[in-house]
Amino acid sequence: MKQLAASASLRDEFPIFGNLDDASLGRLTATALWRRYDAHEAVMNQEEACDGLMKVTQGRLRVYMQNESGKEITLYRLYPGDACVMTASCLLHSMQVDFLIEAEIETIVILIPTTYLADVSQRYPSLKDSLNEIVRLRFSQVTWVVRQIVFSPMPVRIAEFLIEQSTLRETNDLLISHEEIASDLGSAREVISRILKYFQEEGLITQSRRRISLIDKENLKKKIV
Amino acid sequence: MKQLAASASLRDEFPIFGNLDDASLGRLTATALWRRYDAHEAVMNQEEACDGLMKVTQGRLRVYMQNESGKEITLYRLYPGDACVMTASCLLHSMQVDFLIEAEIETIVILIPTTYLADVSQRYPSLKDSLNEIVRLRFSQVTWVVRQIVFSPMPVRIAEFLIEQSTLRETNDLLISHEEIASDLGSAREVISRILKYFQEEGLITQSRRRISLIDKENLKKKIV
């Protein structure tokens, strides 16, 4: 992680700071941290805690959970413009969730630490509303994950994942391992491999080492609905 | 569902109303609904919407999700003293979660509809904080469910469920069907039956029609850790 110099005003970057007085905004600007993370670098884990409001300006973050043996599941991703409120903060003191965050690609974020932000949000109820709104948005995303895990059969979830990644990367050739898909979906590599083999036999994809090519996206999409 | 007469003051029932002025509390009291639900009655579904702050005074509510084909998973339960903030409310307008709520046994709740509550919470930031705190608590419970589904093997989840139900009902003889356990854990009846058969062979439980008896709770608990 590398500290960067501020390259825009917080008022431009955070619409939710729109109505703050200049003094408050000045103090928030003084505490704000601009950071660049390398691809696959940890943004938040046991060693790297960060606390406050974070906004992605470039790149992509992945928010996930992990168990002791390293098994993972992705909860949601944050794209440029997305904000999240980091846990362990006094803004959110009852949230005992153990999310981890990593940069999936090179990513630039602005972090507003809790210290002064908590003070300002006490004086600006509309700001506090906005911060709580962000938490609720993440809540519905996590609920969506529950719904997916419980109610969607794995082939549907894999098809959805492949289409999403193809859109995201703007290519039909995905350099991705079965292990990575398993981590994302909270499944086992063997399960993923079996279903991808079935997709291949159905003529929906082709596979070579660490590469999956979507050759019939229309029919792959039909797996989803 | 049956409307009941108020049997206590809101200030006693809701500590979070502690600092409200008498006029505000009076108006909230006028809008408050005391309701009794029968066992297995729907508290919130497509037909029965309710909107606002709800507190359980007696009984037990189950909050769950359901898909089109009727498959279910329990997200959390609410016991006497527990409160929840109902979705679809203007307090929580970004929450697009489709939770359903049912009374598991005869249950009495107090519902404070959103209409006037939203107005009061604008004037009392500490009240709004408390409402948001309730949402965040439910958020961590849903996150816990994700962790369970993804990371805990089904035998562990079933053992945990049986112990929990035994504590809740204060008996080692549970009148419960495999189907009900499957609904609670978001699994299939066949999966539950197979694992319970294994528990039986291990001498942890005995089974007869719709009855599961925990005969070796100590060793069943060891399945959990």
Brief write-up:
Chain A contains eight helices and twelve strands. Chain A has helices at 10-13, 22-31, 114-123, 125-151, 154-169, 178-185, 189-201, 217-224, and strands at residues 2-4, 33-37, 42-44, 52-58, 61-66, 72-78, 83-85, 100-103, 107-113, 173-175, 205-208, 211-214. In chain A, the strands form three sheets. In chain A, strands 1-2-9-4-7 form a five-stranded antiparallel β-sheet. In chain A, strands 3-8-5-6 form a four-stranded antiparallel β-sheet.
Question: Key features?
Answer:
225 residues; 8 helices; 12 strands; alpha+beta; homodimer; Arc Repressor Mutant, subunit A; elongated; five-stranded antiparallel beta sheet; 2 domains
Describe the structure in your own words.
2 copies of one chain form a homodimer. By secondary structure, chain A is α+β, with helices and mostly antiparallel strands. Chain A folds into 2 domains: 2-143, Jelly Rolls; 151-224, Orthogonal Bundle (Arc Repressor Mutant, subunit A). Chain A is built from 8 helices and 12 strands. Chain A has helices at residues 10-13, 22-31, 114-123, 125-151, 154-169, 178-185, 189-201, 217-224; strands at 2-4, 33-37, 42-44, 52-58, 61-66, 72-78, 83-85, 100-103, 107-113, 173-175, 205-208, 211-214. In chain A, the strands form 3 sheets. Chain A has a 5-stranded antiparallel sheet with strand order 1-2-9-4-7. In chain A, strands 3-8-5-6 form a 4-stranded antiparallel sheet. The longest helix of chain A has 27 residues, at 125-151. The first copy, chain A, is elongated. The termini of chain A are far apart. Residues 88-96 of chain A have low confidence and may be disordered. At the A-B interface, α4 of A face α4 of B.
